[in-house]
Amino acid sequence: MKPAPTLSSAFLQPSGNALPGPLLSLREQRGTALVDMPLPTRKTENWKYSSKHLKLSDKLATNLPAGSATTSAAEDGYRVVFRNGVIDPQASRLPQVDGLTVQRFADLSDDEASALAGRLDNTLDTNATQMARLNTARFEDGLLITLKPDAVLSEPLFVIHEVTATASGSAFPRIYVDAGRHSQLTLVEEYVSSGDQPVMVDTVTEFMVADGAQITSIRLTAEDQNVQHIGATGVRQQRSSRFESHCVGFGGPLRRHDLQLRLEGEGAECKLNGVVVTQDKQHYDNHTCIDHVAANCNSEETYRNIAAAESHAVFNGRIHIHQDAQKSNADMNNKNLLLSTGAEIDTKPELEIYADDVKCAHGATIGQLDETSLFYLVSRGISRREANVLLTMAFINELVTQIPVEQVRDSANERLNRFFDDTFEEA
């Protein structure tokens, strides 16, 4: 029997020692624990469709060197810029708001770093997010956002993740958000790249959301076709808090995002929207999990995938209603659109319910553009191409228009127009 593949020892050699001692110690401990870590295979359930796309050659094991700037949507406003996994203070523009602190991991005191080290990974099921453990063993820098009770940032904070792929390697950016009682924040993560060498981005973002806090997370994944992107987002919500997520993803050789939420306080609410577009031979895999731990919590989840040419999109959404989570209200909906006979979409909505007084629903559909609707539009003088674009855009426009930051909506629409130009020929 062929032995299962394991993580190469080359990936367990972190570089960069600018972190405080407690974080360096944590990184070393996590690295030691990853020795001989099995890599996901087709038999690994949550990597069933994606394991063959994960390419971890030793060339990717080195940290990417510092790179030059690329274009981003956030030229104005508050921003933090990661370049190849390390924060560039000169390119960043931090908000000056009472009760809000934005710090680099490298600038933390030993006491602050020790407190943070004890909290990293506490929002994630690291058995289900294997690559998040690698991030903890390899991150060179990170961003700590702390909101004191009642602190409000009225404008979005952009975090721009720039990858300069002039050489092969990896980047391991990290974000931790500690949102105090009744605080408010909109965080935009934008992933962009330049250069053509094979690289990997392994990113982790964690949110601790206290009583009554309101957090909006927006994630735009738009790197080039040489970039493998593996991301994990973990959220823990307390009483009467609200977390809203908007994820827009464009395919690549491997795109993977795990989004895990725990509704731990009574009255907590979350809303998850996701849009994925793939073409050529691209691959995108979204795995979401919402744990209803406390009673009287609400969750609403809507994801839509579009796959063209020979691409592949995957959605696995799980809602877990715990025994004490009575009067939970949970709804999950996944709709998928195939634009060619060679494209593939796999969807798996899951409900696991251990409480008896709940209202839960889930559903999934996979289909193609309706020929009757196309015929109707063409018969009214609209070109076949424009009719295809109109119907395809209508499929996802409901979710795109809900993105609450104009710059991100504009970036998403620009990328979608490029996708339409590549997918639908003029007839």
From TrEMBL:
Pfam families per UniProt: SUFBD_core
Parts forming coiled coils: none
Superkingdom assignment: Bacteria
SUF system FeS cluster assembly SufBD core domain residues: 167-395
Organism in which the protein naturally occurs: Marinobacter segnicrescens
A biological process term (GO) from this entry: iron-sulfur cluster assembly
Record-given protein name: Fe-S cluster assembly protein SufD
